[in-house]
Specification:
With 252 residues, this protein is mainly beta. The chain has helices at 64-69, 142-148, 152-156, 199-207, and strands at residues 2-8, 11-18, 21-28, 32-41, 47-48, 56-60, 79-83, 88-89, 95-97, 104-105, 108-114, 130-137, 140-141, 161-168, 177-182, 185-191, 217-219, 234-239, 243-251. It is built from four helices and 19 strands. The strands form three sheets. Strands 1, 2, 3, 4, 5, 6, 7, 8, 11, 12, 14 and 17 form a twelve-stranded mixed β-sheet that branches. Strands 9-19-18-15-16 form a five-stranded mixed β-sheet, with no helix packed on it. Bound molecules: magnesium ion.
């Protein structure tokens, strides 16, 4: 099932996509989502980020080739940081390059969306807590990441967490092609099989620290090939079996 959120005159609603058709969703995170009445053609809807996380927990250096391109060691256990919920944007919304940075970069990532409240979850049980998967761009002000020494500012600007276009619930995430294109040119190309710490381990590690709520998001790290974005660029993150998350880039 593909789950979307879209804008209506009455406010945001969840929906379900089948081919080119969209439907209102019945249900909830707790009960599961089901197809309701027609909402028209998918192409006519204003899509929003497919979830509204209370927090985004992201992984640093979870692909060895990306750690290497920054001359960084591979961590001996998962290295986590936060992106604020205020950074989330949906498909088609612009990424704003802030005046504080001269080096804004894309990071194509597989995002895990949590479906049930999760605390102290064993790796063996982790799959039961996942609603599905979507595409993410962990947009990063690389110069500020280096100069600040910690990453809240570099990772936390408004618009620096594009998510979408939808959540796919029936997907094996262990070996999916992940590609980032800028203006149609491939910049990143890898597979989720190259993650150092796999998704069940990440959920065990994170929920030993904090409660994950339905709709919360884990960004599972980016492969090699990160590169600068400039105003006027179009950036597209594609994950096999999910789709393509496209966002334009503008000056702030
Ligand atoms: Mg990242």
């Amino acid at each position: 099932m593909k789950i979307i959120r879209f804008q209506t005159p009455a406010g945001p609603e969840f929906g379900v996509v089948e081919g080119d058709a969209a439907y209102r969703a019945e249900g909830s995170y707790a009960t599961g989502f089901r197809r309701g009445e027609s909402a028209g053609e998918l192409s006519q809807l204003a899509l929003l980020s497919p979830c509204q996380p209370t927090k985004i927990v992201a992984l640093g250096r979870n692909y060895a080739a990306h750690a290497a391109e920054h001359g960084a060691e591979v961590p001996s256990q998962p290295l986590i940081f936060f992106k604020p919920p205020s950074a989330v944007i949906g498909p088609g919304e612009p990424i704003v390059c802030p005046p504080q940075s001269a080096q804004v970069e894309h990071e194509a990532e597989l995002a895990v969306v949590i479906g049930r409240r999760a605390r102290h979850v064993a790796a063996a049980d982790a799959w039961d807590y996942i609603l599905g998967y979507t595409c993410a761009n962990d947009v990063t002000a690389r110069d500020l990441q280096r100069s600040d020494g910690q990453w809240s500012r570099a990772k936390g600007f408004d618009t620096f967490a594009p998510l979408g276009p939808w959540i796919v619930t029936d997907l094996d995430p262990t070996n999916l092609a992940i590609i980032c294109r800028v203006n149609g040119q491939v910049r990143q190309q890898s597979t989720t099989a190259n993650m150092i710490f796999k998704i069940p381990r990440l959920i065990e590690f994170i929920t030993a620290v904090m409660t994950l709520e339905p709709g919360d998001v884990i960004l599972t790290g980016t492969p090699e090939g990160v590169s600068p974005l400039r105003p006027g660029d179009q950036v597209a993150v594609e994950v096999e079996g999910i789709g393509v998350l496209r966002n334009p880039v503008i000056a702030g």
